[in-house]
Please model this.
Amino acid sequence: MATLVLTVVGGIVGGPVGAAIGAAVGQQVDAAIFKPKGREGPRLADLKVQASTYGQQIPKLFGTMRVAGSVIWATDLIERRTKSGGGKGRPSVTEYSYAVSLAVALSSRPIRAVRRIWADGNLLRGASGSFRERCVFRSHDGGEDQAVDPLIAAALGPAAASAFRGLAYAVFEELELAAFGNRIPSLTFEVEADAGTVDAGSVANALLGDPARAAGLWPFGGYAASGDRARDALAPLFDADAVRLRSAPADWRLLPAEAEQPILAPGAYSESRRDWSASDIAEHRRMPLGALPAAIRLRHYEPERDYQLGQQMAVVAGGGAREDRMDLPAVLAAGSARALAQRLAASATDGRETIVWEADLAALALPVGGLIMLPDGGVWRIASRSVNAASVRVELRRYRRASVAELAADPGAPVVAPDWPDSEGVVRLFDLPSMRAAATAPRVLVAAAGGNDGWRGADLWFRGGTDIEPIAIGTARPALALGALAAPLEPGPVGLFDRANSLVVELANSMMALESIGDAALLAGGNRAMVGGELLQFGAAESLGGGLWRLTVLLRGLAGTDDAMAHDAGEPFVLLDDAALWLLPDDMARQAESGEASVEWARRGGVELVDVPVPSAARALRPLSPVHGYMRAAADGAIEARWVRRSRADHGWRDQVDLPVGEGRELWQVMLVPAVPGLGPWDCTESRLLLDAASLAAIPAGSALSIRQVGDFGLSPSLLLPLA
Model:
């Protein structure tokens, strides 16, 4: 029993505390194989999908973050059936594929855009905006005026559908699941909530609803705020940025401890008749060094590693044995994270020493969070104050400025999904010969490739004629090696190694590669390739750089393609030893004989169609041209033309054994070139023709015989036999 799992799970790539977790029910797989009228592939029996838990919290995003989100709406899985095969006693095969439409909540705060999207850790949509799998995608920014998504409105009805105002979310319409094993993948999103960086002040001002209440010093690439209260959401950020409460007579603010501020004097906050005295110190406490942590370990999200978790550590001077860890749901470059860890380590001793000052009532004017310098020159931070009868107890903590500049740091070996830019693609069709048994339909090979390894293939449609509706026939995956000739190629010997000619080919993708093989592997059938209409093999492959390759040690004109050995630059090339290549279905290939059939294609997720004519030569159905033609004298001045038959049913060399005909009958069409009225053409049932003396006298000098075998589906290429 298989399980369908909705793995759009919570967290920001492991995410901040409180990020939402989506779930789905398991699905039972129907393992039925045989049906009365054919064979069926695996099919999901239950198509229900469960949405996320009601009431799960959605974080507020700032800056740019990577989030998983929560599924807030989904359809049942969409099932598609594809039936192929059948006929002539063969069973048909029905394959099932699935798609799903769903909405994923990203942020409970408005966002600017959704950038890259990952599915199971691999890029589903890159920086260029193109999708690797077919779907329709929309994002909603979470504004208070956003409209209802049209897909949700169509599914639930306009009256029942929610616009989710104030909630930023993304909608996938018919996301194909074949690449994910027909299950919903784990989806994560790169979300831009604000342009540029943020700091503790900007986040606090947004959450508190006061544009001037807080300030910060340290910039972050992004932050995910979650928690039941603003205090909970801000606590990790305030700890990292050392933000402290600072009071004033009529106001209060949240400011970094390192922010510039005046240093007060105690005399300004004492009655005039009293001077500062050491006797005013009621308490003096000093925490032992052993109570301090030995090191500070900071965990954050690393933008250079696709927002994966990163960590930096700094040692606390004189610290004890324990290690403190700070989990910061923020985006920081490695250098900034290291500097922050060092600053946190340096400030670990801040507040280690505490004194309590028994001051008079004038000390009520001291701002909590401010700095004061005592007569001995020490600077202290005002932690609190309280009134006790006629005196004011002021708690002061030793202050040491711990500012640290940004340091160089190694983020570690990045484990990131490659983000290929959009590239141009190409689809080529090749008319293959019959390479094993005699074929009953044309063999049309489909090959596709893109300009880089990020090109995911092409969606194909077959059109039998100009007025015929196209039929979807599947997706062509990128070929191992597809390109075009960079220079002309002259004909060469057949049945021998062609060591005189070399084949220079430019591959569509510079990352494609060809390899050399030995003679034994070559003779065993390795390194087969189509060059235009010629089937050949190559033994040596030399890279010339820039996607150019020189191929030598050639076996030419294989499978009867010796009539197509002359090539111009630009003719297509494809390596046949490739599982990504596939043949056009027989019923469609037969329609290609009309000369009007074509294949339309678009890159996966694209809309621009390109039309490629289907070759109509049908070489696999044509007999091979005869070989070894010669003339010999006969009686009474006649001559006899003879030739050797080849068979498309067997390309081997059999000593003293005649090859099978491979056609319903043996029949030859022989005609004069140029034609002579009254002479020919002749139909021969044997591989010979007798011309008497009278016929020879009527044939002009320089004439030749064109000899072609008549096959079940067409004529063979011609053998020209000069008449000496």
In short: The domain at 627-722 is CATH 2.60.40.10 (Immunoglobulin-like). Confidence is low (pLDDT under 50) at residues 1-51. The chain has five domains: 29-192, 200-256, 263-398, 425-619, 627-722.
